[in-house]
Design goal:
InterPro entries: AAR2, AAR2_C, AAR2_C_sf, Aar2_N, AAR2_N_sf. This protein has 16 helices and twelve strands. By secondary structure, it is of the alpha+beta class.
């Protein structure tokens, strides 16, 4: 579908709302985008038509703009994009960088921006209408992402990429290799000749670091074992990194959006890690009913958006979400200190998952092979 051919009739909104968005909605103007470029905003994407110059009637708030260009060889480039919090009636102007094959984040000359803003009425036929039919879903997906949290999580470059950029540095024998008394093997020598790759500074997501220690300083062997079975200490340490507990939900949402629409595997890894942590805590479920009520809402929405083949792969192969939820529901079911309203909410969620995905949550007291607890041996 060519974006420039979208009209108001394709958007599910009444006349009053359309008039309001026409006045108060933001505009994203992007110049020189090549024909046939994949362009998306929030949960919808299209191939650009010849006259395409952006999107109009964007509701104020957070939005994710992303794209995939085509290089000189005709290959589609990895998806990239940026998040922006649009103000009421804002006009954001960017230009396509043909050399880098991406939307440039460089400031355009003030004269150019002023001319475009004053001529915005004439540009109107070249601006696609924001796809309002999915706006309600989009609002729910980013409900906990504040401007402050967003500024902490996005890369310093501002660009969110599906494929990380790497910088090679000359390879040198590692310190461990230097300490060895024996000569290096042929394989080790070959490894030393390879360049050391690391993410190009400023391009990686600035996700909250996972706590490196899962138990308090000076913990006894018994306490270490207890904390390995119930990672509430790890969750508490992670929550200390935020200004409020709900920001953890914001980061969970941020990671999911970056994966769902930005195809960012780095974000998916963090999403999995956070889901697993929240599901395997026991004491935290009793102590933080509000956080877990929020988590159930966020996770249910995420599971409704994940592509079917991705869900099938999780159930049949990795079992991450299913196995983790078995542990969470087991805690909800067996711990008498769990808030009653939270337990009821979890039971309803559990039933909806069974109805939709045919996930079996019977015999929750039985440990699955891939979710058996790990015991610390000292």
């Amino acid at each position: 579908m060519a974006l420039a051919n979208i009209t108001e009739e394709t958007i599910e909104m009444d006349q009053e709302l359309a008039k309001k968005l026409f006045v108060e909605g933001a505009c994203f103007v992007v110049l020189d985008v090549p024909l046939g470029t994949e362009f998306g905003i929030d949960l919808k994407s299209w191939e650009t038509a010849e006259r395409f110059k952006g999107v109009k009637m964007i509701p104020p708030g957070l939005h994710f703009i992303y794209y995939s260009g085509t290089n000189r060889h005709g290959d589609v480039t990895p998806r990239a994009g940026f998040m922006h919090i649009f103000k009421k009636s804002e006009i954001l102007v960017r230009r396509w960088d043909s050399e880098k094959e991406e939307i440039s984040d460089k400031e355009l000359p003030e004269e150019t921006v002023s001319r475009i803003k004053s001529d915005i009425r004439n540009l109107d036929p070249c601006l696609g209408v924001y796809p309002y039919d999915m706006y309600g879903r989009w609002l729910k997906l980013n409900s906990y992402i504040s401007e402050e949290l967003l500024s902490r999580l996005v890369p310093l470059s501002g660009q969110i990429r599906s494929a990380l950029e790497y910088t090679a540095s000359p390879s040198t024998p590692t310190a461990e290799r230097k300490r060895r008394s024996r000569p290096s093997t042929a394989e080790e020598k070959e490894d030393d000749l390879l360049p050391q790759l690391s993410a190009t500074p400023g391009t990686e997501l600035r996700l909250t670091p996972y706590p490196s220690q899962s138990y308090p300083e000076g913990a006894s062997p018994q306490e270490i074992t207890r904390h390995s079975l119930d990672p509430t200490f790890t969750l508490d340490s992670l929550l200390a990194s935020y200004t409020m507990p709900s920001e953890l939900m914001g980061e969970l949402q941020f990671c999911f959006i970056c994966f769902l629409t930005g195809y960012c595997l780095e974000a998916l890894d963090q999403w999995k890690r956070l889901v697993r942590l929240l599901c395997t805590c026991q004491a935290a479920v009793c102590r933080r009913p509000q956080l877990y009520s929020q988590f159930l809402d966020v996770l249910e929405l995420h599971l409704s958006e994940i592509p079917e083949d991705f869900l099938v792969d999780i159930v049949a192969s990795v079992n991450l979400v299913y196995a983790s939820l078995r542990e969470l529901f087991r805690t909800m079911q067996t711990d008498s200190e769990v808030d009653g309203r939270l337990r009821s909410k979890a039971e309803r969620f559990q039933q909806r998952l069974t109805d939709k995905f045919e996930w079996d949550f019977e015999d929750l007291d039985r440990d699955e092979d891939d979710e058996a607890p790990v015991i610390v041996e000292l």
